[in-house]
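Recall from the previous lesson that a structure prediction takes nothing but the amino acid sequence as input. Here we apply that procedure to Methylenetetrahydrofolate--tRNA-(uracil-5-)-methyltransferase TrmFO from Aliiroseovarius halocynthiae. The sequence below is the only information supplied.
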Amino acid sequence: MTDKTLHIVGGGMAGSEAAWQASHLGVDVVLHEMRPKVETFAHQTGDFAEMVCSNSFRSDDDEQNAVGLLHWEMRQADGLIMATADQHRLPAGGALAVDRDAFSAAVTEKLRARDNIRVEYGEISDLPADGNWIFATGPLTSPALGEAIARETGAERLAFFDAIAPIVYADTINMDVAWAQSRYDKGETEEEQKAYLNCPMTKDQYEAFIDALLAADKTEFHEGETATYFDGCLPIEVMAERGRETLRFGPMKPVGLTNAHDPENKPYAVVQLRRDNALGTLFNIVGFQTKMKYGAQAEVFKTIPGLEDASFARLGGIHRNTFMNSPTLLDNQMRLNSRRNLRFAGQVTGVEGYVESAAMGLLAGRLAAAEILGLDLPTVPQDTAMGALIHHITGGAEAKTFQPMNVNFGLFQPVDGLKGGRRGRKDRYKAYTDRAKTEWSDWLSNFA
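The prediction returns the following tokens.
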């Protein structure tokens, strides 16, 4: 293979991070993005790394949380996504949330400023026979490219449905009813401790909300589509269908919160809203992904105390997410077994979440650059968060039941001598993260 250029298809989290990593290792990159020439129903802009669903990168705790550890590993690798997220951070308790528009605009600007990254707009609809390629086309892979992947792999595309939570204008939230507080007052500053708005419900209000939710008009699926959801992003009405109390033990749980307007009475359920932009003018309803039709959404959500007069900057939606059966198709370098010049990264490989997608982009970019540059790299250590994820999607998972996965400590190899169970969890998680940090730093030293 004489061509030393790396082509990356898709300018989402994974593709953006892959381009950044390969570029900084000295490889020439062509970043192919079909938007805005070819639009999707979920994206609003042509910017790179657009955040379609939530504006949160989840927990930033790198000692007791697997996704926080992944944040740490990406920062150690000079990751574009983490550096930009830190620059556009919003108060969110112990989570890392960002101003989504400013974040994606900054990622776009940084990638465009790199001398050895060229951006080409237009759809790639087939798998190239030669050259160095990373496909990071995400869950909204175009139908034509999806069909090309299916033809090459001989496997049917796997799909699940992912839902988008609504966004509310802050000045339409009734603060005589709602109050500002992060769960368990998490955060180092008062701003962090009051990063969420909370709308309380009595038992009667909760029961009426569940009734309205179950009765609302829902989006119908196209003929032949199967509605199999990723459990980490279930529509609220699907949760309600599993049992009337399910939401009260999920996104509407009242624990760790005290109603500032009525501290003596504990709410039966609480709807939380998280700040969505730096101005504080937009809030998204946490965990409220939905497949309700637009008219039904406005009607049902306005039954929530504090949201009676709410105006919505964006209502929820639902879309099909495409992913590959990666354990049967990819090697441990993220290359397609049948065509070693093609790598895949991001959600199309079966990882779930912004952070996990960007992390797999980071690895794909570095692995592709190392191959182009002739570097002999050891395998990514399985005891790191990066290694646990790549091991899972390239062989650790059971292929017959393969489903999208967030990073979690269940993917990590046990540490000898530590007891299991809930009581030993804090020490066990700290041991996982300490071990991972050492091994990740050692692996990164191969690029020095």
